[in-house]
Amino acid sequence: MPREWSAGDTRYFLPLLVERDGKKCHYCGKQVYLSSEIEKKPLSTRARQLANAQWAMKAVVEHRIPVSKGGEEFDITNMVIACVGCDQKKGARFPEDFQRNKTRKNRE
User: Fold this and answer.
1) What is the pTM (predicted TM-score) of this model?
2) Cα(75)–Cα(88) distance, rounded to whole angstroms?
3) What percent of the chain has pLDDT over 70?
């Protein structure tokens, strides 16, 4: 059973973060999309490809300092917008560790 959405959910902060930071991933700088902007049931092949690309760049709320490492869960200063890919790759690492690892992989 899915968890119900509440004002205590970090998704509540997404519009505020978009207004503060714009629609760019904090880590890679690419444009991100809100769920409401992505076509839910595209009909044509091209529209389906576009929607899939947009879902890959969906905006999510990311905690700069992971909650598991002492970061505040509902402190907006600890939240940024990230794309799904960067959010998943960063995981529970500190931003510096993630960026350092990302830079190392780009050199290889």
Assistant:
1) 0.73
2) 21
3) 81
